[in-house]
UniProtKB/TrEMBL annotation:
Subunit and partners: Dimer of large and small chains.
Gene Ontology cellular component list: cytosol
Species for this entry: Rubripirellula lacrimiformis
Known EC number: 2.2.1.6
Pathway(s) it belongs to: Amino-acid biosynthesis; L-valine biosynthesis; L-valine from pyruvate: step 1/4; Amino-acid biosynthesis; L-isoleucine biosynthesis; L-isoleucine from 2-oxobutanoate: step 1/4
Protein name: Acetolactate synthase small subunit
């Protein structure tokens, strides 16, 4: 991917209070930044939530997003996950037409190959759960299209920096964008 169109995975630790998601997403949208993916959930500390989002752009975009996030009082810490060695995952639930017989067997085989699982079985459809990197999830969707996808839902990206022996392993955005 070119420098001008780079994917940045950011993790923001925020206070777990009503309105934080709306405030952050509204602020980014009002300044013309598009959020490519977003996932929010409570952390190991119930007082904090983690927002993982993906923005696409050059280093200037990353810098501007960082500066704007730092201004928000409810933001505790921002980490540029994509600048480090990290693990990312998407989750997919997909309902696909699968009448009893050969098609259902083929779908079951593909689910196994993609290390997914069938989580619901109906008379004419099955619901599949797949998690993994974005390209794996997308590849599975493409393999299911010929069978007839009835419904599909995906989470936003979640990501964590791998453990490191380096004492300064976290590269925070906080402070990096100070004027």
């Amino acid at each position: 991917m070119s420098q001008s169109n780079q994917r940045h995975v950011l993790s923001a630790l925020v206070q777990n209070i009503p309105g934080v998601l709306a405030h952050i997403s509204g602020m980014l949208a009002s300044r013309g930044f598009n959020i490519d993916s977003l996932a929010v959930g409570e952390t190991e500390d119930p007082q904090l939530s983690r927002m993982t989002f993906v923005v696409v752009g050059d280093d200037r975009v990353l810098e501007q997003v960082g500066k704007q996030l730092e201004k928000i009082v409810t933001v505790v810490r921002v980490l540029d996950v994509s600048s480090q060695d990290f693990v990312e995952r998407d989750l997919l639930l997909l309902k696909v037409k699968a009448p009893a017989g050969a098609a259902r067997s083929e779908i079951r085989e593909l689910v196994d190959i993609f290390r997914g699982q069938i989580v619901d079985v109906g008379p004419e459809e099955v619901m599949v759960e797949i998690s993994g990197r974005e390209n794996k999830v997308q590849a599975f969707i493409e393999r299911m299209r010929p069978y007839g996808i009835s419904e599909l839902v995906r989470t936003g990206r979640i990501a964590m920096v791998r453990s490191t022996s380096d004492a300064d392993g976290d590269r925070e955005i906080e402070g990096r964008f100070a004027s």
